Amino acid sequence: MSTCDNIAMENFHGQFYSSLQRDREYAIRVRHAHKQYGTNKNLCVVLDGLSMTVPKGIIYGLLGASGCGKTTLLGCILARRRLNSGEIWALGGSCVKGARVGYMPQELALYQEFTIRETLHYFGGLVGMRAKKIEDRLNFLSNLLMLPSVDKKVADLSGGQQRRVSLASALVHEPELLILDEPTVGVDPVLRQIIWDHLVDITQTKGTTVIMTSHYIDEMRQAHLIGLMRGGRFLAEESPRDLLVKFSTDSLEEVFLRLSANQILMKENESNDMPGKRDSLTQRSQNLVEKSHFLPSIHWDHLRTLLWINGLWMLRNLPVVLFMLLLPLVQMSLFCSAIGHNPKGLTVAIVNYETQNLSNCDTTLACNSSTLSCGYLYYLKGKDLNFVYYESDYEATNSVLKGKTYASIVIKSNYTTALQARIAEWRDAEPWDITASEIDVLRDTTSKDIATFLKIYMYESFRDFIGGYLESCDYSPRVVAVPFQWKKPVYGLNYPNFTDFVNPGMILTTIFFLSVALTAGAMLIQRNQGSIERAMVSGVTPIELLITHIITQFVLMMVQLTIVLVWSFVIFELTLNGSVLLVTLLSILTGFCGMCFGFAISCGVDSERMATYTALGSLFPLVMLSGIVWPIEGMHYLLQLCSIFLPLTKATESLRSILQRGWGITSPVVYMGFISITVWSLIFLLFSIVLLKVKKG
Ligand SMILES: Nc1ncnc2c1ncn2[C@@H]1O[C@H](COP(=O)(O)OP(=O)(O)OP(=O)(O)O)[C@@H](O)[C@H]1O
């Protein structure tokens, strides 16, 4: 049972039972409808106690100036907008949707990239029509509405042709009730008459009820009944013939003008004589705001058609889809090859006062060596540095000042003898020997990482050099080593690398934000094209929309995920010590969370531009505060508190522990990541559903 039917069932009881019997004779009955937009300051009352009666099997023309509320009234009849107060009964229930109604909105609300045939199969499929029947109707309607080749894309049609496809989409399933918002705009007079003849024919032969709006007042002569709307009410609701006779004219336009003038006069009298009458009228109207339920109402026809249309959309937008699939590949390739590797080929200025003759520089480490400086430089060069030799420390300093080199290394003239003395007489070493055995280093530390790496290279090469020299003198190298015994790390590598640290966060951020972009983009495109609105009138529920989008995006996300994981662990061989299954599951949950966030964004904002700003605006705080590029322990304690509540923080910690520590799901750090990302997905989903509900008004 659909949401609509549920509401109708609720309202069967009590005071409405008898009136419902009466309402069954009418296609539509509206009583004391009040609808306003905005709040106190910007209050705009569109329907002001309006009542409307549409018998079955007639054409009802809704006329009125632009902005008088015709579209709003149709939206309320279709339960796409809520009344503030008043009652609406449509085809015997409190709202009407699905196969019983055909709706042509004012805006086009068609997928531009689909052909006429695909468009009609989409709308027919949504209301459960079989393909054969749709084809028959397609032939009939394309002849009737003089459509071009049915295999032409909607985007390639003229404005008038596109509106005719929109009309055909409303007519395809031969509904009981047709609601057409300006169906004849942009249609030439001959075709306009053909459309009118068809509408008259289906009211007579099939008992169809048609409610239509038009700006061409005089074409409404052909309607059985017209409602002239102004100031939120009807000036008249009669047959055009009666109105023309009553006002002794042959122009409906003149009738409208004279009724409008009467209304202005009456309003002036009302406000002089009876202030407050309007308020009491509004208050007397019973508030029967439709209760919208989010009970799962799922139809296979809807799911099948929505999935087909989503797949077709991807096929028609192949460059966009390919871009979304290639993006993670490019991103992971760039990340793995550009981030976290030790800098190589750094240029360093060298001044070796011990020997300026490089060809004579003996690098052999022997106890009686006279050029130990050459030995040290040999080890340092092994760190892949690029040496530039200078004759004086003045020149070397200048090269650092001018940014030609990252550091200058100056070795004093009696380096070897001083170093040998320092080692042999370590306790009684003379101060000048200590000074002469020191190497002077001048660095440019504007790049923290390069400065740190240079320092590490110099320490490590000195450790290896001095160790080799001491061994050649039969000393233990440990005598001069820093007195720590670095055991093999419990988790991680002897030389931890930055790529491994950032990779878990990188994988999750990539999956999360690609899902956000895909989902928010697809939903907004459809919403702004009006196709979601139209699908909902065809009976599609928000839950069905969510399910089909989740399935479609899920397929894309799985491809993206496979690319990201294969690139990280197979191609770039980053550390993977834990379970591949857990890594995959956590990544899927993160992608799902991204989808839910994308839904929330698309429900919360109205334009793709705002969606992009929101997604970008959330990307940076998430990357900065989730411990992805820098440990959370290094952040301000207030930010540390914030970071706990972000969706990617616990998930990143969890993935890092799986990848590097090899921990399983029983570890609290690991399962907290799973719990946190699941809770966030639910929060985003609930938020989307609440927004959908609230925004409907
Ligand atoms: N979502 C909204 N929020 C605020 N105001 C709205 C909203 N939708 C419509 N309105 C206002 O309500 C009034 C009636 O709009 P509506 O679209 O129903 O008019 P209309 O009679 O269909 O106009 P037209 O013939 O030009 O299509 C207009 O003044 C419009 O600005």
Automatic annotation (TrEMBL):
Q: Which GO terms describe its cellular component?
A: membrane
> Ranges for the ABC transmembrane type-2 domain?
467-695
Q: Pfam families given for it?
A: ABC2_membrane_3, ABC_tran
Q: Where is the ABC transporter domain?
A: 28-256
Write the record's keywords in alphabetical order, separated by commas.
ATP-binding, Membrane, Nucleotide-binding, Transmembrane, Transmembrane helix
Q: Signal sequence: where?
A: none
| UniProt KW Membrane keyword | yes
Task: List locations, semicolon-separated.
Answer: Membrane
Indicate how the chain sits in the lipid bilayer. Multi-pass membrane protein
Could you tell me one molecular function GO term of this UniProt entry?
ATP hydrolysis activity
Question: TM spans, by residue?
Answer: 505-525, 546-572, 578-601, 613-632, 669-692
Protein known as:
Uncharacterized protein
Its ancestry begins with:
Eukaryota, Metazoa, Ecdysozoa, Arthropoda, Hexapoda
